[in-house]
Amino acid sequence: MKRYSVFALARNALRFGPGWPALWRSPDPKASYDAVIVGGGGHGLATACYLASEHGITNVAVLEKGWIGGGNTGRNTTIVRSNYLWDDAAALYEKSLQLFEGLSQALNFNVMFSQRGVFNLGHSVHEMRDIARRVNANRLNGIDGRLVGADELARLLPILNVSARGRYPVLGASFQPRGGVARHDAVAWGLARAADARGVDIIQNCEVTGIRRERGRVAGVETTRGYIRARKVGLVAAGHSSVLASMADVRLPIESHPLQALVSEPMKPVLDTVVMSNAVHAYISQSDKGELVVGAGIDSWNGYGQRGSFGTVEGALAAIVEMFPIFSRVRMLRHWAGIVDTTPDACPIIGETPVRGLFVNCGWGTGGFKATPGSGWVLAHTMATGEPHPLNAPFALNRFVTGRLVDEHGAAGVAH
Ligand SMILES: Cc1cc2nc3c(=O)[nH]c(=O)nc-3n(C[C@H](O)[C@H](O)[C@H](O)COP(=O)(O)OP(=O)(O)OC[C@H]3O[C@@H](n4cnc5c(N)ncnc54)[C@H](O)[C@@H]3O)c2cc1C
Question: Closest by alpha carbon to 259, among 359, 347, 337?
Answer without folding.
Answer: 337
